[in-house]
Each structure stands twice: as structure tokens, then as C-alpha cells.
TrEMBL record:
The lineage of its organism: Bacteria, Pseudomonadati, Bdellovibrionota, Oligoflexia, Silvanigrellales. Pfam families: NMT1 (PF09084). GO terms for biological process: thiamine biosynthetic process. It comes from Silvanigrella aquatica. SUPFAM superfamilies: Periplasmic binding protein-like II (SSF53850). This is SsuA/THI5-like domain-containing protein.
Length: 299
């Protein structure tokens, strides 16, 4: 059987959020479904833009990018939520004497300079009775938490199962504030597997087969975290073994969580998040979740 070449554009350098793709590739799940998958490292252009214009077949994206894209008439559809809950948290070193959001007044936040960062921080500050205008926001780009908080900044926004876990494994004591634990409207599946409406229209069976193989990869990681971690280390040898093992173990219970199946996307959760985006003036209109979410390709 001749394999069909497909590409998947990552959102970030390879990490455990992507483990299901590497497992599915390594174990031959994609080739079983007639697919030769090429995993592409991220570029300066977002996955929504490249997938929307057909320069990549599939991509990894986020709810906010997806909603912005739909409002700009970019024909993007999300096929699956990789992790059921938003697993990102604000994090600081405990030796910085920060105990609450109020203690972040006057501190330096290091981020990537996006409008939703400002909106999220402002929202959290106001809800906690803290003064947002006392926060110093610095654009530090993709700098890792550990070196960044040694001199440049006091806190950053990281994934629980990656940079925060990496700090803990190095024996650094950290404090966290995870928005999903405090605000249901900020708790949506993240990251997301996206494709274009055009791809769905022209090759629905191929999209279905891609998602079947991908689901098998993530289900394997959920049931066999140790073996899945070994596979990821084999596929991406520059990754730190200890971190991959600990992270995969942590994520194995988070990937599906209480959803009926891995990848399932609840429209109401996306609508609640889009409603929040409108409330804080990130968007002017709320796109219909049914137009940009499609669970029908999940096996």
C-alpha cells in the first residue's frame, strides 16, 4: 500500500504534549492507516495561519488562536483537545516571598507579549483584589522559567507538566497559581489538534484515519506512560529522560481526565472561554463553537 504523505506542525519544540503523535509514528499506527507523517518544528508563523492556507495538513494550536482565526474567516477546525484541562499556571520561586496574587503587585512578569496574557493577568488581579497597574510586564519571549527568574523576572506562565515540573525535579521550590482551578471560564482543553475545512471537505477519510492513529497513540500513552516515555526519548533524544518520564506519568491521568474519550471537546467550555474573551475585549463577536469544533473524526 502506498502511504500518503501528511504533515503535522508543532506549536513548540517537541515535548510530552506531543507524545501521542510520536508513539503513533513509532509503533506504526499511522502507516497502518496508510499515512506517512512528517512532524514539523514550529516556525515564526502560527499553525492556524499555515494550516488555514494549506501549507501544513494538521497543526497544534490553542483555543484563543482558533477563535481569533475563525473571527478573521480563516477556515480552521479543531479535531481534538490534547489535554482535557488547561494545565498552565503562573509560577514563581518560593524564596521570592510571594504567597498570593496580591503579593505580585510591583513584581516583574516575563511573557511573550500577547494580548491574552495581559487580559488574563488583569482579570486574575482584579478578582483577587490586587492592583494590575502595579505589575511590571516584560516581554522575554521563549525564555525558560529557571534562568528567567534568576535575574530578569519574578514570575512566568508555564505548563504544569513541563517547565514547572522541570524546576521541581531540579530541587527548586516553586509556588503556583493555576487559572483553571479558580475560573471555569478559563478551563478549556489545550492544546488542540487542528486542520482546515478544505482538508475535511476534500479528504474526510484521510482526516478520519489520521485521527484514528493519533487517538491510538495517546491512548497508548495514557495506559502505558513508561513505555510511551521511552518511545518519545528514542524519537527525540535531546529531551531530558527524567523530565519525560515524570511528565508522561503526570499527563497520563490528564489527557482524557473525565471526558468520554481522549480528544473530546465540549462546546459549552469553548463558548464559556469565548464569552470571557469578549468580556475582556479580546474579541468583538463570539463564533459558534459548532462551526470550529468537530468531534466526529474521533474513533
Amino acid at each position: 500500500m502506498k502511504l500518503k504523505n501528511l504533515s503535522l506542525l508543532l506549536d513548540w519544540k517537541p515535548n510530552t504534549n506531543h507524545i501521542g503523535f510520536y508513539v503513533a509514528k513509532n509503533k506504526g499506527f499511522y502507516s497502518q492507516y496508510g499515512i506517512q507523517l512528517k512532524i514539523l518544528n514550529p516556525t515564526q508563523t502560527t499553525a492556524t495561519a499555515l494550516v488555514g492556507t494549506g501549507k501544513a495538513d494538521f497543526g497544534i494550536s490553542y483555543a484563543n488562536d482558533l477563535i481569533y482565526a475563525r473571527n478573521a474567516h480563516v477556515p480552521i477546525v479543531s479535531l481534538a483537545g490534547i489535554i482535557q484541562k488547561d494545565s498552565s499556571c503562573f509560577v514563581w520561586r518560593t524564596n521570592s516571598k510571594i504567597k498570593s496574587i496580591k503579593d505580585l503587585e510591583g513584581k516583574r512578569y516575563g511573557g511573550w507579549g500577547s494580548p491574552e496574557e495581559n487580559a488574563t493577568l488583569k482579570y486574575i488581579f482584579e478578582k483577587n483584589g490586587a492592583q494590575f497597574n502595579k505589575l511590571k510586564i516584560l516581554t522575554t519571549g521563549a525564555q525558560d522559567f529557571l534562568p528567567a527568574t534568576l535575574k530578569n523576572v519574578d514570575f512566568t506562565w508555564e505548563y504544569r507538566a513541563w517547565n514547572i515540573l522541570a524546576a521541581e525535579l531540579k530541587g527548586v521550590s516553586v509556588g503556583t497559581y493555576c487559572p483553571n482551578e479558580h475560573f471555569s471560564e478559563l478551563n478549556k482543553p489545550s492544546p488542540l489538534v487542528i486542520t482546515s475545512e478544505n482538508k475535511i471537505k476534500r479528504e474526510p477519510d484521510l482526516v478520519k484515519n489520521f485521527m484514528k492513529a493519533t487517538s491510538l497513540g495517546f491512548e497508548f500513552a495514557i495506559q502505558n506512560p513508561e513505555q510511551a516515555a521511552k518511545i518519545l526519548i528514542e524519537e527525540v533524544p535531546e529531551l531530558e529522560g527524567n523530565l519525560v518520564n515524570a511528565s508522561t506519568k503526570m499527563l497520563s491521568s490528564m489527557f482524557q481526565a473525565d471526558a468520554p474519550k481522549w480528544g473530546y471537546q465540549s462546546e459549552s467550555r469553548f463558548e464559556a472561554y469565548a464569552g470571557w474573551m469578549k468580556k475582556v475585549d479580546l474579541i468583538q463577536q463570539i463564533p459558534k463553537a459548532s462551526e470550529y469544533l468537530d468531534n466526529s473524526f474521533l474513533p
